[in-house]
UniProtKB/TrEMBL annotation:
Residues 58-108 form the Transposase Helix-turn-helix domain. It comes from the Bacteria. Keywords: Metal-binding. The keyword Metal-binding applies. This is Transposase. Residues 137-294 form the DDE Tnp4 domain. InterPro entries: HARBI1_dom, Transposase_HTH_dom. It comes from Streptomyces filamentosus.
Length: 304
């Protein structure tokens, strides 16, 4: 068994000790309530023992949190984590599933608002309009395992851009590369604009008509549907256009790219966590994993 103090270091967890202490204080109550709720449901009735009675957990809550963070940061197998903490592999598997779900439900933190967390796209638009924040939107893909042959929907994960089996997520960031929101991951075959429409970006544009969102060339359909709100680089002019027209277009594209590069930096912060470089586990667990990591990254960037 390795020293627990060493395992809680930032090199293993990816977050500072202060951040870890705040996270443990925030999640301890919901985790305990979830454990008690599952026990009551399994027993089929209310608690019969006094509070604090019964068998003790072999892996306490803080160790469960640290093990989950190490798994997210370095993608260590559950068997290796079980060896480090001196417990059975099934205990680590159950702990990772519990803590990952709690982390995924937290949402994204925003600067100068300790109690505010953004969980829906409408919340992001409302916050941005109130605070005067410029939004940037982009999509990224994570490579996943290919579905089993003979099962339905096998082609749904084949990305036309990556030429791989992927899952795609849409991310919104501000001008300081701070992540404000991420959606539920979708099969890689879905177009970026379609994924944004599915999340209700059209409704957000209707309710917040003064908001503008910077997009890339892959979302020209959104610019057509929402002119003046969905901002994309100018399209390529005709070949017979004057050289001055081409030069003006390149200058506008450069300015647009310089503003939108912050969302690319936010995506790079996510990919520093090894589990998001290439997902080798069950596809249904990737959405919760991505939202959990995004919430942790947003905590750090909001207080930077």
């Amino acid at each position: 068994m390795v020293d627990r103090t060493v395992l809680a270091h930032q090199f293993f967890t990816g977050i500072s000790r202060h951040h870890l202490a705040c996270l443990a204080q925030e999640l301890a109550g919901p985790w305990q309530a979830g454990v008690e709720g599952r026990r009551h449901e399994a027993r089929g009735g209310a608690r019969r023992r006094a509070a604090g009675a019964g068998a003790r957990h072999q892996l306490v809550f803080v160790d469960r949190l640290v093990a989950t963070l190490i798994h997210l940061r370095h993608d260590l197998p559950h068997s290796v984590l079980a060896l480090l903490f001196g417990v059975d592999r099934s205990t680590v598997t159950r702990a990772v599933g519990e803590i990952r779900a709690l982390l995924a439900e937290r949402g994204c933190a925003v600067p100068d608002r300790p109690g505010l967390r953004l969980r829906a796209l409408a919340d992001v638009f409302a916050y941005a309009q109130a605070e005067g924040v410029e939004l940037r939107l982009d999509a990224t893909e994570v490579q996943v395992r290919r579905p089993v042959a003979g099962h339905g929907g096998r082609r749904a994960f084949v990305s036309g851009k990556k030429k791989q089996n992927t899952m795609k997520t849409t991310v919104v960031a501000d001008s300081q590369s701070r992540t404000l929101w991420t959606d539920a991951l979708r099969p890689g075959r879905m177009h970026d604009a379609t994924a944004a429409r599915t999340e209700g970006i059209g409704v957000c544009f209707q309710h917040f008509p003064d908001m503008e969102v910077l997009l890339d060339d892959g979302c020209l359909g959104l610019r057509r549907d929402h002119p003046g709100k969905a901002i994309t680089p100018p399209r390529k002019p005709n070949k017979i256009a004057l050289p001055q027209v081409h030069a003006a277009r390149e200058e506008v594209r450069h300015r647009h790219s310089s503003k939108r590069i912050t969302v690319e930096h936010a995506l790079a912060d996510h990919k520093r966590w090894k589990q998001l470089t290439r997902w080798t586990h069950r596809r249904e667990a990737l959405p919760a994993t991505y939202r959990a990591i995004v919430g942790l990254v947003s905590d750090r960037t909001a207080h930077a």
